[in-house]
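Posting here for the record, re: flavin-adenine dinucleotide.
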Amino acid sequence: MDKLSYDVIVIGAGSTGENVADRAVKGGLTAAIIESDLVGGECSYRACMPSKALLRPGVALEEARSVAGAREAITGKLNVAAAFKRRDFFVSNWNDSGQVKWLRQGKIQLMRGEGRLVGERRVSVTDSEGRITYLRARQAVAICTGSEPVIPDISGLTAARPWTSREATSANMAPRRLAILGGGVVACEMATLWKQLGTEEVTLLQRGDRLLPKCEPLVGEFLQAAFERGRISVLLNTSVRQVNRQADGAVRIALSSGETRLADQILVATGRQPRTAELGLETVSLKAGSWLEVDDSMRVKKVAGGWLYAAGDVNHRALLTHMGKYQARVCGDVIAARARGDADATTPEPWSRYFSTADGCAVPQVIFTNPEVAAVGWTEAEAKARGINARVVDYDLGRLAGAALYADGYDGKGRAVIDQDRGVLVGMTLVGPAVGELIHAATIAIVGSIPISKLWHAVPAYPTISEIWLRLLEAADL
Ligand SMILES: Cc1cc2nc3c(=O)[nH]c(=O)nc-3n(C[C@H](O)[C@H](O)[C@H](O)COP(=O)(O)OP(=O)(O)OC[C@H]3O[C@@H](n4cnc5c(N)ncnc54)[C@H](O)[C@@H]3O)c2cc1C
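Prediction output follows.
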């Protein structure tokens, strides 16, 4: 039986796992990382990168079309083949040699295969030929195995060979008719993307009563109207009862309303589940297939000895690449600090580098629909549910000179949520063209707890869309 030992063993070399290992090595430890698929994980090859590479050409074209003078210069249509080629470039043709090189340069030992816990601090790696290597972690094991799509239990759905986000970001041809189950971020981005790439009929089948239900309600309403103008159909309060892939290849979808829809492809975007079913969690008294609940230093709760950590999607705190990487920096640094006996790392304080503070109050997200959505912090409902004495101020972005200059007929909305007792911003939501680049200012205001009376002196340049800050503060009576 092989038994190699490293200070830290990371299972899963997605964006999170890579960064845990990197920070641990930079902190003076040795690290091995285990990957069963592509080094770089979902974000690099099957999620963020391919989707954003494919979305950008359509948005760029529409932005040019929205400016008189530029509009007249556009004589052709979107070149779909070139858009796919752009996507292939951004995913390095699904070849991970660049990221493997990065691991090597970072002195991180890569082991290809399925990683599995086999007891306290012990991990097995089964390679593609079934050979098993046993590893031992001197300090810690970090689980960074991410999440995978949930396929709901709907009669006929699995047999209909639906797309998940993986197929939807790697396909090379637009289906003529695409039905999408769901109304969250992935569903809305994919509806935008495939409409731009030539799908004639895109239909969102959303069980709930609005799109993007985790955002401020104004976002779902605004986006739905934009989708309908762009000939994307949205059916709310709609469940799917049965799915059938017919002999002619079409998918027949029976809805709760009694209506039936036909599509050439069906995409399931109904949420994520943890990738922990085959991870040997039961060998350390955890439940196979569960999300891994962690404390603020990424240590898995309910495991004695404090040697097991989990970062990224798998801990269910914030299923976003940048938040996974933030948690990874906390996780790698705290493991190294605890190994050194650094007192600050024993019971870390909020806002220290060993405490994943932003997870609890300042998670920024950009949704790359057209128009874009950007949000950080609490919505009004979330703030009130936390007992915050919240005041909401709204402003139409289209009234800003910078927005009107940015695009003819610019339309968008901004909402700030202010904690009246502390006099600080606790949430911001923007929807409109190009708002994604604006949200970081709000993240800084929230993380810094900058009094809004002081934000008044952060004067936005004229004429930019950033003047939303001035208008929101005026609306808040400053
Ligand atoms: C369509 C789509 C678009 C998205 N767009 C964005 C975006 O624009 N911005 C954003 O911030 N987030 C986006 N996300 C979310 C983002 O992709 C995830 O939050 C991120 O990839 C999570 O990183 P991770 O490292 O935790 O997990 P993953 O990236 O899933 O990495 C986990 C790795 O572990 C490996 N693994 C799993 N089990 C084992 C095992 N037993 N042994 C060895 N290896 C194993 C997997 O092969 C994988 O490589 C998007 C998600 C989707 C689905």
